Amino acid sequence: MFATTRPSDPLVLAVDCSTTAAKAVALDGSGKVAASAAHPLNLSRPGPGRHEQDARQWWSATAGALTEVVAALGADAARVVAVSISHQRESFVCLDADGGPLRPAILWLDSRADREIAELGSDRVREVSGKPPDVTPAIYKIAWMSRHEPELLRSAARIAEVHAYLAARLTGRWATSVGSADSLGLLDLRAGDWSPELLELAGVRCDQLPDLVHPGTPIGPLRPEVAAAIGLPSPVPLIAGIGDGQAAGLGADVTGPGAGYLNLGTSMVMGVAAGEYATSPAFRTLAGAPSGTYVLETVLNAAAYLADWFRREFGDPALGGAPDPALEAAAEAVPPGCEGLLTVPYWNCAQTPYWDTAARGVTLGWHGGHTRAHLYRSLMEGVAFELRLHLDGLEAVTGTRVDVLRAMGGGSRSPLWARIVADVTGRPVRLCDGEEISARGAGVLAWAGAVPGADVASAAARMVALGETIAPRPERTARYERLFAVQRQVYPSLRGVFAELAAAQA
Question: Distance between alpha carbon 2 and the CA centroid of its chain, in Å?
Fold first, then answer.
């Protein structure tokens, strides 16, 4: 946590309630961080593929982080004009009439609903919701509940994603942002409203769901007792936020054509802004900000996850999975293509563009000259090859080239990985300054919703900080082009084998 004192310009409070922590920041109109704090969240794994969380932590961690930030501001807390939220998407909780959780929240990375995805996922669901059949949208896990916990689902007074839960605690109003509700997979995304067709498929009643508010517009003032508990001198409005992926795009100033955001976090997420609604297996479609815009996003549920996994299982035990400069240097010395070692990084199934929950990771081309450093670099290259596949598909559908990737997340802090991404894709990689890019995106919405004369695009342009640009090296791009042509053949050749392997383990 840190704080600074500046002149009496407005400040906004932005929260990113992610899977592992709630982070709060206070930002001024130039994007300068005046104070920040983070409170951790615990994750439980009650069974194979199951990931849950006590939703009450969403509130306690958020309130704790906000309280710490406001305390750091001191007298400058009087300058705060609004609060906004970004959050882990697709996670949801069932609540009683008093807002208490009826069971632990089911999270976005939970994979218990394979059967429901196979039986209920369809082109029609994708066309209405914007989401290809996949493990992340909540619609399939809610359908799982309707089959396995039907009484609990029927008795739930409310079904809330993270934003709705926090908005109710902050303001007392049962409402959420269209850009947050979207991740449940229950919206008719083109209409921006709940879809009766999708509610019936999931086994949900409309009266269980919150009112919808456009991102960047007020939900309501903080309850006086909440404002006082946080330390604010008076209630300020809660401005409707958006999911952490779309917020990361705003936090990287990706609001128009030509640029894409790239989050090399636990997962790899790449997205672009779009003015027209479109769906395709080449991407998932999300609500954007301002209202009436969309985000076209690709995803691979293994990026920094893979690097962390490798260091934990095969790295220096003394480091306990922490970044290893010696390993990075050894991987840097390995030639592009790892002397014939190729990886398809489906450790957590295949998403864009195949959407295959049975797919698994493959590394091929081994020979006796390969080392740990070869495999480590091959994992990085495999993720970059998937990004190249995603870019090809996205650009083929939209007809618009992504000229630059604005990168964030733990993987982007590896100079080696950032250079590999630039070389494999042939695109410049512009690194985002700062740590909490999704929270910064929520700050953009808070500023646009509370400061007279501001809008989303102008707020993003003035509040975003960008750093170093890593240019692709043409000779390496040409080398990787040949390797990509080989790597992209692996999954189609093994699709049937993955299905048989999954059936053999059932």
Answer: 26
